[in-house]
Write a structure and sequence with these properties.
Radius of gyration: 34 Å
CATH superfamily of one domain: Urease metallochaperone UreE, N-terminal domain
Cofactor: Zn(2+)
Strand content: 15-25%
Order of helices and strands: HHHHHHHHEHEEEEEEEEEEHEEEEHH
Largest sheet: 4 strands, mixed
Subunit structure: Homodimer.
GO cellular component, one term: cytoplasm
Number of strands: 15
CATH topology of one domain: HSP40/DNAj peptide-binding domain
Strand order of the largest sheet: 10-11-15-14
Number of helices: 12
Structural class: alpha+beta
Distance between the termini: 75 Å
GO biological process, one term: DNA replication
Helix content: 25-40%
Shape: elongated
Keywords: Chaperone, Cytoplasm, DNA replication, Metal-binding, Repeat, Stress response, Zinc, Zinc-finger
CATH architecture of one domain: Sandwich
């Protein structure tokens, strides 16, 4: 991304959030856009694909605290009008100290710029603010002339690839036990035609004649040297005379790729998993970005989940509850025997240890809750048997309620 793009693109508008939005609001807005605009959901829709890329680029900057700070500083300094590159009121200062964008032809006063960047720092510290700001934006800034080489190396050196986010939907048992899944996603990658050089096959880039391959140009103003990305090569340090037809000289194309990802046991619905080095490839030999997988978990017909514990409701008959029984109940990885003692009441919960979710800190349990199954209809013989049993038991299961009725109300 060129410095001009970094300054002129409104990432907040791309995500539809306010400039003071917090990290949670930014993440929520991006996920909603990613779901609606994802290429898999909009095959052949070029407009949706473009908006998806724009939202991903915006999220890559605004979700990173340092990048967002640098972006906001750049927009504040350059985006207000007078100092916008190529704008009507100014531009980057030329070597003579005048605005390159035209304007009224008035000289560009570096003192005014220092004052704006440094605030009310006071006499004698007037230049500190601009140095700090340019240090964040371009890896250098206002300094003694001897600091130019380190800034040039930073501008033209390796650059880390962008982070990429995708989604995966898992079955309930896959989320609990862990699973290896293939993920198909679209993200930037090295151009397969030029292998990332940006040059037409058979040709090669050469060092930029303006910056000498450094990626930045410098000029002196008194005791200070100021650096900015080279306009000729846009900070890359190299020039492509005959661009690759596939990537138009950028060295990067959007590619659909499938990778195999191991989802660990115990993930929860909505959890975000980071896979280091699985994102977009870096530039100029830099490391790849990270891949973030947002997990969605479908429900289970049998089991529920409470933290690291699994829950299961099992109906039993009145006879089993009264006389006791041994139940064979399912788990996610087999079956287990459960002894129900005589006189068990409906709603009682039994704990089967170690048959729940294998979490990071502990293995959960299986919580089995028994309920009394009541027949919807009875045969004449069954009705007679139940009536005979009721006569034999002749017990009041609700003495407190009965006493309250007799006295005309509760306490």
């Amino acid at each position: 991304m060129s410095t001009r793009d970094f300054i002129e693109k409104d990432y907040y508008a791309a995500l539809g959030v306010a400039k003071d939005a917090d990290a949670a609001a930014i993440k929520k807005a991006y996920r909603a856009l990613a779901r609606d605009l994802h290429p898999d959901k909009n095959p052949g829709n070029a407009q949706a694909e473009a908006k998806f890329k724009e939202a991903s680029e915006a999220y890559g900057v605004l979700s990173d605290t340092q990048k967002r700070k640098e972006y906001d500083e750049a927009r504040r300094l350059f985006g207000s009008g007078g100092f916008r590159p190529g704008g009507a009121g100014g531009g980057f200062p030329s070597a003579g100290g005048y605005p390159s964008g035209g304007g009224a032809g008035q000289p560009f006063d570096l003192g005014d710029l220092f004052g704006a960047a440094g605030g009310q720092a006071g006499a004698g510290t007037r230049g500190g603010g601009l140095g700090d700001l340019f240090g964040g934006l371009f890896g250098g800034g206002a300094s003694a002339p001897g600091g130019t080489r380190s800034r040039q190396q930073a501008a033209s050196g390796p650059a880390r690839g962008q982070d990429v986010e995708t989604e995966a939907t898992l079955a309930f048992d896959e989320a609990v036990l862990g699973v290896t899944v293939p993920l198909r996603m679209q993200s930037p990658g090295s151009c397969p035609t030029c292998h990332g050089t940006g040059a037409k096959p058979g040709t090669a880039p050469h060092a930029c004649p303006v910056c000498g391959g450094a990626g930045v140009t410098s000029r002196s103003q008194g005791a200070f040297a100021f650096s900015e990305p080279c306009r000729e090569c846009r900070g890359s340090g190299s020039v492509v005379d005959d661009p690759c037809a596939t990537c138009k000289g950028s060295g990067i194309t959007d590619q659909v790729r499938t990778i195999t990802v191991r989802i660990p046991a115990g993930v929860k619905d909505g959890q975000r998993i980071r896979l280091a080095g699985k994102g977009a490839p870096g530039r100029r030999g830099g490391p790849a970005g990270d891949l973030f997988v947002v997990v969605h978990v479908t429900g289970s017909e049998l089991f529920g989940r409470s933290g690291d514990d699994l829950t299961l409701d099992v109906p039993i008959t009145f006879a089993e509850a009264a006389l006791g029984t041994t139940l064979t109940v399912p788990t996610l990885d087999g079956t287990v025997s459960l002894k129900v003692p005589p006189g068990t009441s409906g709603g009682r919960t039994f704990r089967v240890r170690g048959r729940g979710v294998h979490g990071k800190s502990r293995t959960g349990d299986l919580l089995v809750t028994v309920t009394i199954a009541v027949p919807g209809s009875l045969s004449p013989e069954a009705r007679a048997a139940v009536e005979a049993l009721a006569a034999q038991l002749d017990e009041d299961p609700r003495p407190e309620v009965t006493a309250a009725v007799r006295t005309g109300g509760g306490a």
